[in-house]
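Archive maintenance. Older records in this collection stored only the sequence; we are now back-filling the structure field for every entry so that each record is complete. The fields below show one back-filled record exactly as it appears after the update. Entries are processed alphabetically, and Sn-glycerol-3-phosphate ABC transporter ATP-binding protein UgpC is next in the queue.

ARCHIVE ENTRY
Title: Sn-glycerol-3-phosphate ABC transporter ATP-binding protein UgpC
Organism field: Sinorhizobium garamanticum
Length field: 380
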Amino acid sequence: MAEICLSNINKVYGDSFHAIRNLTFDIKDGEFLVFVGPSGCGKSTALRMIAGLESISGGELRIGDRLVNHVDPKDRDIAMVFQSYALYPHKTVRENIAFPLRMAKLPKPEIDRRVEEAARILELTPHLDRKPGRLSGGQRQRVAMGRAIVRKPAAFLMDEPLSNLDAKLRVQMRAEISRLQKELGVTTVYVTHDQIEAMTMGDRVAVLKGGVLQQIDTPKNLYDRPINAFVAAFIGSPSMTLYEASLSGEELRLGSQTIRLPDEVFAARPCLRSNGGRRVVVGIRPEDMDDASIAPASAEIQAAVTLVEGLGAETMVHLAIDAPWVDAGDPDAIAEIGQQRSAVGRFSPKTAVQIGDRARVALNASNLHFFDPETRTSIW
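Back-filled structure field:
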C-alpha cells in the first residue's frame, strides 16, 4: 500500500489545450478516493497520469516515497481496472486471473494460491474453469477485479468500471467494490461521472471542472458545505436549483415572494448578515421542499406544477418558481423570468398535486444554501 501525492500537476496537449491545471492533493495510504465531474473535466486524464499512461506536463507525482513522473506504468506497482473488462475470451477465469502472475514468472504454487484466494474473496470459485462468455456482466467485472487483486499492488486505479452494467448490477457491484477495498485496505483511486457512485463509495471525493479541482472532501461535507455553486449543484440527485434573490435583514426576496429566514441560518452563516440589502444566489435542494398541505413548515412559497413523477416511496414534483434561475457552471448566466428552469421537489407520496396546480410548497428555510452572485462561492 502507498500514499499518492500530486503536487502542481499539469497536463497540456500539443494543441495547447490545458486539460489539468495545478492539481495538488494527497491520497492517504489505504484511502478510497473518487474523481467525479462532468464529461471533459479531466478526471480520466488525472487517473491516467497516475497510472503512467499519460505524460505529465508539469509538477510532481509520488507513489509512496518514489517520484514516478518518468517511471513506466509496469514499474509503478499499480493495478488498473478499466471500463471494458479486457478479458481474454479463450482463457478460463482461472487463466485470466493468473495472467499477470505468469507474466511476472511467479512459481506455480504461489500463482495457484493467489488465484484461489482472489476467487474466494470475489465469490468466483465455482466459475474458475469457465470462460468469460459464460459469465454475467457482474461476474466478468469481478474477474477483472481478481486480475488486479492477485498482483497485490500498492494502489488500485479504476476508470468507470461499472458503466457497462445495468442499474441493478451497478448497485450490487459498487457495494462489492467498497467491501473489497475495505477488506484489502489498498489505496484506491476511482473515476466516475455518476455522483451517486462517488458519494456512496468514496472516503473522500474530488470534484473537478474544466481541469481544475473545485473541492476535495468527505461526501457529507461536500453535500452540507459545498465550496461553491458548481459543487452544490453537481452533488445531489436531483440537483439543487439556484436562483437570483436579494436579502434584506432577515427576509429573502425570491422573485415575487418573501421568505423569512430563521435565526439558525444566520448562526450557521454569520457572513450572511453583511450581505443585507444585496443580491445573493440561493440554492434549494429537492429534499427541502414538500407539499405544504400535508407537511407544514416555517416557510412557504407558491409555485406552478409543471410535471409530477410518482416513484412509489416519493413523488418528484417539478415546480416553476417565479425567480431568475442561475446556471451553476456559468458565472454570467442568469435567465430572465419566463425562461426559468423547473426546480424539483421531493414530495411525500401522499401529495395530491397535479400538473397545472398552483402548489403551496413547504420550504425548509434552515437548509437553504447561499452564494456570492459574483464569485459563486458559498457564503458562511
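Update note: The first strand starts at residue 4 and ends at 12. The chain is about 25% helix and 30% strand.
Entry marked complete.
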